[in-house]
Amino acid sequence: MEKRTLLAVVLALGVWLLWSYFFVRPHEQSQEQAPEQLERVEQAAETPPTREAARPAALTAISVKGAFREETVSIATGKYTAVLSNRGAVIKSFKYNARGTELVVENSGFEAKGVFDFPLHLSENEFLQGGALDEAMWGLGGVTDGEVRFVAAVTLQGVPVRVEKTYRFLKDADYFTVSFRIQNAGNRSVVLPGGAVIFSASDFLGPAMDFDNTYNQVHGIYSVNGSFEKSSKGGGFFSKAGIVKKENGVIQWVGMMSRYFLLIMIPEDFTGTGVISDNRPGAGFRAGMYLPLDELKAGDTLSRNFKVYAGEKNKEKLRAVSESVIDAADVSKWIEPIRDFLLWALLKINILFGNFGWSLVVFSIITKVILLPLTQKSTESMKKLQALNPQITELREKYKEKPEILNKKIMDLYKKNKVNPASGCLPLLLQMPFFFALYSALINAIDLWQAPFVLWIRDLSLPDTIFKISGFNVNVLPIIMTGTTYLQQRMTTGEAVGQQQKMLMFMPLIFIVIFWNMPSGLVLYWIMQNALQMLHQIYINRRGKIKNAE
């Protein structure tokens, strides 16, 4: 019975992890669809939405006074070091000082711009294809301490329009601001092509890494009606390639998410009415917020301000900026307390060892010692169960045609001998929270990024791949883990027969599939648990022999 319970736990774990690996591929994930809210536009870059067709074109001419070449401005605060350029009024370089990490990726392997551009789009087609202002030389309207203002004078439907984009960097804050100001400088109204202005942050977010790896995913993110959402690339198992996703609702913020960092635009004193995300394969990962604006009358000005969080997936830092963005940390509230404790423990242990691999080994030993009393009871219970195997075999033979009676007889046998058939699974079940917490930490915690162990294990947050064969990763630790799993089960169950023997052979195969592309730190932790269990079993066996000899 305990074997069935164990198998159920393993299968449940396996289904979840296999689903994550095979069906939630990087940049190719399926999307939940709400028919009443979601509008799909096939190949929208080539066929603009119908609602734009009857409206006038966007920028018909562009002129920028006093800007004939690219100019850059460097800004340094306690949190960031940024280099801004008047070509497109963008941030060309953005270094997160706390980690010494560059978050602008020039060559991502996607059709991304390689800058933080915070563009202003006047139509959905501009959102997808880019607008005239994206590559224009803006004028430097003013540079003061921590503030840079860019100015562009454009012509829209024959009407002169002044556009300003201002960056303000605060000395010790975890955010900076981006402000937009659009002024109709003409004597007649302007009708916007899409009936709305679209604001977005960027189409890619670093740091630079192997973006083909399963774990190094990038997403456009947004909050719609209070719900955190991640947009994903088309072409997944259940999705159609080449789609653009649009949703209506209250949009509290839009942005980008990489494996460890967030770039989020949070409107000040207003919300958007819808969101659009570019999910076309090969393109960037831009998500934009709609602000309705059918007409800009002569002399009128539209001004909008955003806070921009650019930093780690850290709930405390996010909370300091806005309560609305906390969910962007993307950590389960159920596993978060254990995950935070685990990270705290690893960081403390690492002060002594200076190597997260050895710190993980020590943490494995500590958890094993804490759970030792339960493991001891589990081992004794399994021994009692093994002693009952002959009687259970007799019952199975006697009542093989009467399964209900058989189950009752077996349960009576367990009760008579004071054996709990599920007790063997208890240590494993208690390990599960640590397992999932460690998985979460290795996936999202930047402290464990690029943390080496020994020899070929150079990054505990990734599989320990030594080489590839036709694109297939060859990893060592999952093979070692499978071997230790088999040996540990063999030592625990003894000479298994029948269904137990089949399970003894089958379960390690399940484990190697589940763990093959897991972060090497997680596989290392499981190997340590197997090794410690084997040592404990050797001790139990020797102690039993000594007692029998006496």
Structural notes for this entry:
- With about 550 residues, the chain is α+β, with helices and mostly antiparallel strands.
- It folds into two domains: about 35-50 and about 60-330, Beta-galactosidase, Chain A, domain 5, CATH 2.70.98; about 360-550, no CATH class.
- About 35% of the residues lie in helices and about 25% in strands.
- It has helices at about 1-25, 50-55, 125-130, 315-320, 335-355, 355-370, 370-400, 405-415, 425-445, 475-495, 500-515, 520-550, and strands at about 40, 60-65, 70-75, 80-85, 90-95, 100, 120, 140-145, 145-155, 160-170, 175-185, 190, 195-200, 220-225, 225-230, 245-255, 260-265, 270-280, 285-290, 295, 300-310, 465-470, 470-475.
- The protein has a 15-stranded antiparallel beta sheet that branches. The chain has a four-stranded antiparallel beta sheet with strand order 3-4-5-6, with no helix packed on it.
- The two termini are about 35 Å apart.
- The model is unreliable at about 1-10, about 15-55 and about 235-240 (pLDDT under 50).
Layout of SSEs?
Elements: H1 2-23, E1 39-40, H2 50-53, E2 59-63, E3 72-76, E4 80-85, E5 90-96, E6 101-102, E7 120-121, H3 124-129, E8 139-144, E9 147-156, E10 159-169, E11 175-184, E12 190-191, E13 196-200, E14 219-224, E15 227-231, E16 244-257, E17 261-267, E18 272-278, E19 287-292, E20 295-296, E21 301-312, H4 315-321, H5 336-353, H6 356-370, H7 372-398, H8 403-416, H9 426-444, E22 465-469, E23 472-475, H10 477-493, H11 498-515, H12 520-549
Antiparallel strand pairs: 1-16, 2-9, 3-4, 4-5, 5-6, 7-13, 8-9, 9-10, 10-11, 11-21, 12-20, 13-19, 14-15, 14-16, 16-17, 16-18, 17-21, 18-19, 22-23
